[in-house]
Write a structure and sequence with these properties.
It is a single chain. By secondary structure, the protein is an alpha/beta fold. Helices cover 18% and strands 32% of the residues. It has a single domain, classed as Dihydrofolate Reductase, subunit A (3-Layer(aba) Sandwich), CATH 3.40.430. The chain has an eight-stranded mixed beta sheet. It has a two-stranded antiparallel ribbon with strand order 2-8.
Amino acid sequence: MRKVILNLAVSLDGFIEGPNGEYDWCLADQDYGMDAFFARTDTIFIGRKSFELIRNDAGMFPVKHIYVFSDTLVPEPGENINVISSANFETAVAAIMEAEGGDIWLFGGAELVTLFVNKRLVSELLLAIHPLLLGEGKPLFQQIKDRVTLTLIDQKAYDTGLLQVRYELNPWFDPEKIPFLG
C-alpha cells in the first residue's frame, strides 16, 4: 500500500498560514529536501481552499496526479485534476492508496489534514519547522479526536535555522478507524 505523507511548512508555534492566509514566511532559498521527496512522490492530495491558493501555479508540483477534495470545485477546461467529493471519499481514497504508484503527498489544508489523521490514513509527517513565531494564524492540527503517537525516523537542521523532522505514525493502520480498508 502506498504511503500518505503529510509534508508541510509550519512555524515554530504550529501555524501553517499567517493570520491573513499568508505563507510568505516560508523559506525558499534552497531545496530543503524537496527534490528527493518529489523523486518518490507521484500524487498530491489537496483541499479545495489550498488548491485555489495555488491553482495558477499547480504546474509547479512535479506530480502526475492531483486530487482535490471538494464538494463544490469545478475543474476549469484543460485543468489536469481529479475532484473527490465527500460522497465518494472512502472509495476513492482506498482505490488510490491500493493502486500502483509512488508516495502520496498530503499537502493540506488543515481540515483535510484533520480528516486524514482522524481516519489514520497518514503514514508519515514530514514537517519543515521554520524558525519564527507567527503568533496567530491557521494551526496545523485542529480537532484531532484521539491521541496519535509518533516515532522520529529522521531529522535535519539547516543553516537557516529550519528544522526538518520526519515522523512515522504508530500504528498508522487501525482497521477500526478505516472500516472501508478492512
